[in-house]
Amino acid sequence: MPDQGKIEELTDSLKGYLNTNIELIKHQAIERTTVIVADLVSNVLVGLLFLFFVFFISLWACFYLSTLLGNNYTGIAIVAGFYLLMGLILYMVRKKLVIKPLRNKIIHNIFQKDSK
Question: What predicted TM-score, i.e. pTM, was given to this entire model?
């Protein structure tokens, strides 16, 4: 029965092929995950630095407006009102300016081809 040997050889080859493909998929998943996590961490760090910048500019604006208007609370209220207005505008256009681009960026990062 020489056919039995060929079937076993074919079965072994198929098992080896499947194991190799499984390992390849694992490595690709790990690589893409690390790219996405690294991108996320770097974006969070840049975002934090930007928030510190905005915070200190806001403090400066509060003190400057308070000095100009002669009342501490007025400068703080104007800056708070500005942020309230910006928050309301951002809330109204969040789907177009925040959610959609963020989804597209995540999907692009997940499905991007290897650039090597």
Answer: 0.66
3-state DSSP assignment of residue 78: helix
In a domain, 81, yes or no: yes
Residues 35, 29: Cα–Cα separation, whole Å: 10
**Cα(12)–Cα(59) distance, integer angstroms:** 70
Task: List pLDDT tens digits, range 78-114.
Answer: 999 999 999 999 999 988 888 898 888 888 877 776 5
Q: Is residue 116 part of a domain?
A: no
96: containing domain: 2-111
Residue 64's contacts (CB-CB under 8 Å, 6 or more residues apart) are 75
Residues 6+ apart with CB under 8 A from 74: 65, 66
